[in-house]
Write a structure and sequence with these properties.
By secondary structure, the chain is α+β, with helices and mostly antiparallel strands. It contains 14 helices and 19 strands.
């Protein structure tokens, strides 16, 4: 604060409204390298104007070296009193964290460091708080997640993760656009929180005097568009579920949902494995990623396994031999799976898959053909209506995608919804899907055979960038109150 006042006393505005850069730091370094190729040793570039945050400061009396960092990288700057004259006094009032603009030519020091020799230096923003104590590696996760800006300042690799996330989303979008899909936007505030088995967040719209919910999925609105004649649609957006927080769950998350008319879940399998491999290749240069210290090949084809057969093989539980819910509950507990006493059959099977099968699916795997109790929106298999045409995709021991051949029979869909409402009254502690009358009306106008897909963008980013917790791929994860 004393330095700030001294600057103001000298007539220096510590927060000027603008500054025009000619180059980013990366561009300035590239310019010098090109100049050095043409001029040889002792080269000096043309003058450039750059700016960035001061991350290192080395005072040497009548000269100073400092490092500035912008989003493109770091650049060393040399300040000399004989060049800057009276303006050199600015050095005395600089701190780590300040933003500085400098103009000058680039040269290479005796140690080989590309450096800008400042002809002019302009303070752009005075920092009133010091940067993290461990400037070269902030490790306190509490600070990293609560004050992400400090994490980005201190840990250069964090910025690379979020650049990769942005690129992943762009590549997904380009892939689907090239397949002829249309990107759309559907409501975030909805009157019925349907399309998934999850607890919603509740709000109220004053002008309409009605209760609304943050969407838990985009599914039912996107399928309305299929009814309307948009044969290939997708949305990338936030979904909200009032649930717990752990390594791969956050109450708000980014989902891709896509729907393609005249396709089924096998077509969606082919598209998903092609898309994930393509995205990984574009972002990392390879279809092999490392997750939890294990190499994972995303190259198609991915293995396809039966849910029923894997539960029998891994857990020794034959779900067909345990049709009674109490018998299945006893079998689950005998297998060491923690299931609440009042759990529905679908909930028990979901727990069995999550505890016994999912952790073992390290290489990309489609787990296929789910019991109808778990899948109220999926079409039943013609040869065995106890199961539906559904898959979940796993990699690294976590779920990354879910897909169905969509149920398009309005009468069967109505019955499924009614069964969900009955189950909610029987098992109050569980999440079930909800009856959406407007969606049922839309189905009654006719929906063609359709393959639908949901992909967790956050988990896909975790997989491709090798991050072990969802908090490391969310800029601002939800946290407990301080």
């Amino acid at each position: 604060m004393e330095k700030l006042q001294r600057l103001r006393d000298q007539g220096i505005d510590p927060y000027p409204p603008r500054y025009r850069r000619s180059h980013t730091n990366e561009e300035a370094v590239a310019l010098f390298q090109d100049t050095e190729v043409r001029q040889g040793p002792g080269a000096r570039s043309e003058e450039v104007t750059v700016a960035g945050r001061v991350i290192a400061l080395r005072l040497m009396g009548k000269a100073a070296f400092l490092d500035i960092r912008d989003a493109s990288g770091r650049l060393q700057v040399h300040l000399r009193q004989d060049i800057l004259q009276d303006r050199y006094s600015l050095v005395d009032d600089l701190d780590l964290g300040d933003f500085l603009g400098v103009r000058g030519a680039l040269f290479k020091t005796r140690s080989g460091e590309i450096t800008l020799e400042a002809q002019q230096a302009t303070l752009l923003s005075k920092a009133l708080r010091p940067p993290p104590e461990k400037w070269h590696g902030l490790k306190d996760v509490e600070i990293r997640y609560r004050q992400r800006y400090l994490d980005l300042m201190a840990n250069a690799e964090v910025l690379s993760i979020f650049r990769a996330r942005s690129q992943i989303i762009s590549c997904v979008r380009a892939f689907l656009n090239n397949k002829g899909f249309i990107e759309v936007e559907t409501p975030v505030l909805v009157p019925v929180p349907a399309g998934a088995m999850a607890q919603p967040f509740v709000t109220r719209h004053n002008a309409l005097d009605r209760t609304l919910y943050l969407r838990i999925a985009t599914e039912l609105y996107l399928k309305r568009l299929i009814v309307g004649g948009m044969d290939k649609v997708y949305e990338i957006g936030r979904a909200f579920r009032n649930e717990g927080i752990d390594m791969d769950h956050n109450p708000e998350f980014t989902m891709l949902e896509s729907y393609e008319a005249y396709a089924d879940y096998k077509d969606v399998m082919d598209m998903l494995e092609e898309m994930v491999a393509s995205v990984a290749r574009q972002v990392t240069g390879s279809t092999t990623v490392t997750f939890h210290d294990q190499p994972i090949s995303l190259e198609p084809p991915w293995q396809r396994l039966s849910l029923k057969e894997e539960l029998l093989r891994i857990g020794g539980i034959d779900i067909e031999a345990h049709q009674d819910t109490s018998a299945l509950l006893a079998a689950a507990r005998n297998a060491g799976v923690d299931v609440e006493q009042r759990a529905s059959r679908g909930r028990i099977i979901d727990k069995l898959v999550g505890s016994l099968v999912e952790p073992k699916l390290i290489q990309p795997t489609f787990l296929v053909d789910y019991p109808v109790e778990m899948s109220p929106l999926a079409k039943a298999k013609a040869e065995d209506p106890r199961y539906v045409e559904r898959f979940e995709a796993f990699a690294g021991g976590m779920e990354i995608a879910n897909a169905f051949t969509e149920l398009n029979d309005p009468q069967v869909q109505r019955q499924r919804f009614l069964e969900q409402e009955t189950l909610r009254s029987q098992f109050g502690g569980e999440d079930f899907d909800r009856l959406d009358e407007d969606f049922l009306v839309a189905l009654e106008y006719g929906m063609p055979p359709t393959g639908g897909l949901g992909v967790g963008i956050d988990r896909l980013t975790m997989l491709i960038t090798g991050q072990q917790t969802i908090r490391d791929v969310l800029l601002f994860p939800q946290l407990r109150s301080k």
